[in-house]
């Protein structure tokens, strides 16, 4: 059973009722192992509202990345059900953006054309791309300007730093205005300074698109900075053992990391991880 935090209770009391975009209904996961089935996720029950940013944190191997794959529809939930707008997710969704730890950019395309790629392959943008290419280019340029890459549109991936490639990857994930953005430790390979800079840039992009964000991370400060809600998962067979609503104003600044409120959330989340 989820242990609701005092933070969660007080914030929920102030929040208007909103129909969830995603619902997890008794979701579990198990894999074959040495002739039997090994349970990875015991049971997850939760809902995510439109425009909400949530993070999943917990020990390695507890099934966090598997949750992203189930939400995307690449591997639908084998136990229980994940519903999108009330309908079970049984196949890959079209209206998602994905960013991984290692940004995969096509080496023969420059930054601008890498960002434009989803508009060339995702409907309904694909059928309109030739006629609306100028408009699509402006959309890409606006996103690149948000992450300060407006002067690097013609550069190729090998000419960009790791942080620049990740910024471009985030723009590409959001260019088609998805309803759901899936983030699998997107900043794990970056140095600490660049990683914190990326938090602010991701926040700016997300606030612009207003999609659901689902982040997998081992960085608890990153989870607090970016999230409206942080779910703490136990070791496998995993379940959600703590649910913290992060009631900090947006846009958030890096200076907030030094505040008592920020450290209150961080400490509570860390305590629940280390007590399990």
Structural overview:
This protein is of the alpha/beta class. It folds into 2 domains: 6-95 and 178-274, Rossmann fold (3-Layer(aba) Sandwich); 103-176, no CATH class. 36% of the residues lie in helices and 24% in strands. The chain has 9 helices and 10 strands. The chain has a 10-stranded mixed sheet, with helices on both faces. A hairpin with a 2-residue loop joins strand 1 and strand 2 (36-48). Helix 6 (162-174) runs parallel beside helix 7 and helix 8 (220-226) packs across helix 9. The longest helix is centred in the C-terminal third of the chain and has 18 residues, at 192-209. The radius of gyration is 19 Å and the shape is globular. It starts with 5 loop residues before the first helix and ends with a helix.
Compact description:
The protein has 276 residues and is α/β, with parallel strands linked by helices. The protein is built from 9 helices and 10 strands.
CATH level 4 superfamily of the largest domain:
P-loop containing nucleotide triphosphate hydrolases
Distance between the termini: 14 Å
CATH fold annotation of the largest domain:
Rossmann fold
Q: Biggest sheet, strands in spatial order? A: 5-4-1-2-10-9-3-8-7-6
Rg from Cα: 19 Å
Name of the CATH architecture of the largest domain: 3-Layer(aba) Sandwich
Helix content: 25-40%
Largest sheet: 10 strands, mixed
Shape: globular
Provide the number of structural domains.
2
Could you tell me the number of beta strands?
10
Report strand %.
Answer: 15-25%
Average pLDDT metric? 89
Low-confidence segments, given as residue ranges, are 1-16
